[in-house]
Write a structure and sequence with these properties.
Strand content: 25-35%
CATH topology: Pectate Lyase C-like
Number of helices: 8
CATH superfamily: Single-stranded right-handed beta-helix, Pectin lyase-like
Helix content: 10-25%
Distance between the termini: 27 Å
Length: about 400
């Protein structure tokens, strides 16, 4: 039986992953040869992350910021219908950030919302940093990380969790708002209010997300499905991103969401990722985005609403499945593309599948990228047998 447990997907050999950055983020060195340092307090961790000295910061325990800045109550909204049985799950409410709630407030859906302030004010990361967890001990609770116009950063083997999961705009796990040469590797994200990974507000060049576990199973959702909607968002005027060997688990949207406006120019090589038990909106290649997707596995993942079916929303993507589609890469890269695969079973069996993008011009848009030409893309049979090379999430390095 394929994937008898989720553990079989995520907890596999440590010896098959890459110990160095690759893809668009291959030039990242982080703290380089800076000696390893272990912070002794929340304040010291925040200070070391923010300064501009090269550092290798070791996280060997839980750093809990949850209640460090108190609670706040303000006017928000209830955009979605309440769940019929709150013992089984609850619907997310939302903060009125950037007037996001205004249409819902005008519709009579204004409510009071209370949240922990710490999760809405992320830890800032300076240039030339490596932040790395030890085993499964490296946890940052109640606060996310933010990169703003910085470069050369490695975030590895960290679990970021519990950021106001009951509220949209309750906090992001990782934000990149202008960055260059950044590698996010073997991290786990869970119980996040908004985005597990968000990128935009400036050029983000040379970014790799690898072997991360986007754990979407939650009590709070937008549709009472116990699945997190706000997974991965990539916007911006000049974005080059590799997403490889990641596991998206029980998500219901933005998995990932790319671009969306005429101002966006998003280029993503997306390969050997596993989507498991994801229901609803999956991949959304919006306006201004180009996506080459190879060797990805979609298991027990399907649309729920008619609007979920299309994986393109004005952008261009190429998801090869057939031999003819694979051959489209040969003349461009000197190698064939690697086929994607959809595996449905159980209650998913009679659902309509996603309609994946088939823009055959897309491989040509990637022909100048050496990291794409030489990418080590595995066949999906390898993923079925043992999951992504290197495993997903913390505890595999």
């Amino acid at each position: 039986m394929l994937f008898q447990t989720l553990y079989a997907v995520f907890a596999i050999s440590k010896n098959n992953g890459k110990s160095t950055p690759f893809g668009f983020g291959a030039q990242t060195t982080g703290g380089g040869s800076a000696p390893e340092q272990t912070p002794s307090s929340l304040e010291e961790l925040a200070s070391w992350l923010k300064d501009d000295r090269p550092r290798t910061i070791i996280i060997d325990r839980m750093f809990d910021f949850t209640d460090t800045q108190g609670n706040k109550t303000e006017n928000g909204c209830a955009p979605w219908t309440e769940c019929p049985d709150k013992n089984k799950g609850e619907v997310q409410h939302a903060r009125n950030v950037n007037d996001w709630c205004e249409p819902h407030i005008k519709a009579g859906k204004s409510i009071s919302v209370t949240f922990r302030v710490a999760a809405t004010e992320p830890l800032e990361i300076g240039n030339d940093k490596t932040i790395k967890g030890v085993g499964t001990k490296g946890v940052i609770k109640g606060k996310g990380l933010c990169v703003s116009n910085k470069k050369n950063i490695i975030i590895q083997n960290i679990h970021i969790t519990d950021c106001n999961a009951h509220l949209v705009w309750g906090g992001d796990a990782i934000q990149i708002r202008g960055g260059e040469n950044i590698w996010v590797d073997h991290c786990t994200f869970s119980y996040i209010g908004r985005m597990m990974f968000a990128m935009g507000s400036g050029k983000n060049i040379g970014i790799t997300l690898s072997n991360n576990h986007f754990q979407g199973k939650t009590r709070w959702s937008t549709n009472c499905s116990n699945r997190h909607y706000w997974s991965i968002l990539v916007l911006g005027p000049e974005e080059t991103v590799t997403m490889a060997n990641n596991c998206l688990d029980h998500t219901s949207g933005r998995s990932p969401k790319l671009g969306g406006s005429d101002k966006d120019k998003v280029t993503v090589h997306y390969y050997n990722n596993i989507h498991i038990q994801c229901q609803g909106q999956g991949i959304d290649a919006g306006k201004g985005s180009k996506m080459l997707a190879e060797g990805n596995l979609f298991k027990q993942s399907h649309p729920v609403n008619p609007s979920d079916v299309l994986t393109e929303g004005g952008g261009e993507s190429y998801f090869p499945f057939t031999e003819a589609e694979l051959a489209a890469c040969q003349s461009v890269f000197g190698r064939a593309c690697v086929a994607n695969q959809v595996l449905n079973s159980g209650k998913c069996q009679n659902k309509k599948d996603y309609q994946f993008g088939k823009k055959s011009n897309v491989p040509g848009e990637f022909k100048s990228f050496d990291s794409v030409i030489k990418a080590d893309v595995r066949p999906t049979s390898d993923l079925i047998q043992s999951g992504p090379p290197g495993g997903c999430g913390i505890g595999h390095i």
